[in-house]
Fold each of these.
Amino acid sequence: MPTAEKLKPNDYKTGREPIWCPGCGDFGALNAFYQALSELEVEPHMLALFSGIGCSSRLPYFVNGYCHHGVHGRALPAAMGAKLSNPELTVVVTGGDGDGFSIGTGHVPHIVRRNPDITYIMLDNEIYGLTKGQIAPTSPVGMTTSSTPLGSLEDPLNPVALLIACNASFVARGFSGDPKGLKDLFVKAISHPGFAFVDVLSPCPTFNMDMTYQSLRPKVSPLPEDHDSSDRVAAFARALEPVVYTGVFYHRRESIPYEKRHASLRAKQVEYGGQPDLAALIRKFR
Ligand SMILES: Cc1ncc(C[n+]2csc(CCOP(=O)(O)OP(=O)(O)O)c2C)c(N)n1
Ligand code: SF4
């Protein structure tokens, strides 16, 4: 519900200064997020922001709302619980590619299958920043890091292709070097009634010199104007191209969020005689 007086991006600051390294891509993403919250007139008491562990997972400290900095890789289930408890909340998850696609990967396809109205913002720096630069699931093959001094032997995951393959109802990619474009993507993702994923290319100038603003700028390009974001097959093909496209790859038009379906299930339960006899149910398993 809109506030009487629209909050400005700065009103979403907590007063805690981010402790990220100078030049960290996460600053651009945070600023774009403040702007999106202001544009959408999200009231801080209606914002529930969840993260795991990592430099990127510190983002909730700097945002005015109900924020939860939890356990490594487990932000998605915590966010799901909040959304089911109070579907009116704007629920957002932030975190890194390590948090989301190493220890946390198992949660991704299952939350996608449920399609709750949650926005998942992944700050993708292709490295583990917080733990001082080990290989991440998105790191390119051959990359030398503290854990792969002779070069990585593993192929990287493609976050956008993975989420389209899982059938997420909104999948986008942005770049922290393009804060205006990123703000627009956050606005669209948060407005989408279902699970929305935004892969944010967010350089780590301290530990990943293979993915810098300079190296990304010539590779990054907006999706072609004729890209049909309602066509999942076309979106998947775009995600596999060597061009690093930004924009909305896929956007399911008819998206019914899980919490709505859950509410109709509850209504059905009442129709069938209310709450089940929990004590009798537990006795069955003794
Ligand atoms: C259960 C558990 N395992 C491992 C760690 C160590 N750990 C902390 S953050 C992290 C990865 C961080 O990488 P990413 O999520 O990409 O975030 P970044 O710091 O790059 O933003 C790891 C492995 C931990 N905190 N908890
Ligand atoms: S280590 Fe990398 S990801 Fe972490 S704050 Fe520094 S620049 Fe950002």
Note: The two ends are 47 Å apart (CA to CA).
Amino acid sequence: MNGNSILFQDALLNSDLELLKTIPKSDLHNHAPLGSRLKDFSIAIGSEIPSPPSAMQNIAEMNEYIINNLRSLIVNPDGFKTSIALALRQAKMDGITKLEMSLDCQFVTLFPDKEIGLINFLKQISKSEAPEIQFNPEIGLSRNLDIAEAENWIYPCIESGYFKSIDLYGEELIKDATLYKNIYKVAKNHNLKLKSHTGEFGNAESVRYTVETLELDEVQHGISAADSKDVMKWLRNNNIRLNVCPSSNIRLNRVQNMEQHPCRILADNGIIITINSDDIMIFDQSISDEFFNLYNAKLFSATELNVLRINGLQ
Ligand SMILES: [Zn+2]
């Protein structure tokens, strides 16, 4: 076991958050511009922002909060740039050394030269804020967007060669995965890693269906797979990793509490999982916080959590 593994476990055993922050970790499910703490964003833009409800019923309720309280502050050139800088600072402060930052393709509209402006900004800000982080930009697509309109933005991003992966998110049950087959084919042809949210609110079979339909390499969430031995076996045999976000699942009323989070079942069934933040601005939990949450809930031992940490770095 190397030095970082020993220190990581020591940090958990001794409730030493500051030490835990210094150990290399990944965040592979991180929707920028929601990647920083709400209070940091509030201070940076000089505007009081109401906190999100402590319990939300679903993604629609979270989106309602975002539309009413954050959207106008983020969807403008200055607010967007500030939020991305803060997300990088947050990751750096938390010891994230590998960051797959998901950026909605809609954000190209904030730049006069569209995807070229977005890419130039991301190149510059990742270099100036966090050059030590392995920064893997991910192009994101929301199921809530009109597909024909989104195609105008996402194809140039895929074809740019800058983005390393693609992710589909938003309200999982409103549009079938087949509608995105063409976009994912093009992304595959351009060697992007293929990811999608599935099995967050959909059932276990929806995880297998989405992986097969879009030829996914990895799944964001996928926790419903824990309800089916058969789907878990299939995911294991196909080596599909799940990038889970425990606090997000609890706050969105999908899982009752940390003690009952299905990531334990998934890991016990041989599925490779990683621990991620989803939306720090909404859920207020960093990756270090999340490791403590799982440890304090006695869901995993410090040694097991170190395996999950290393999963993300590989
Ligand atoms: Zn997500």
Note: The mean pLDDT is 97.
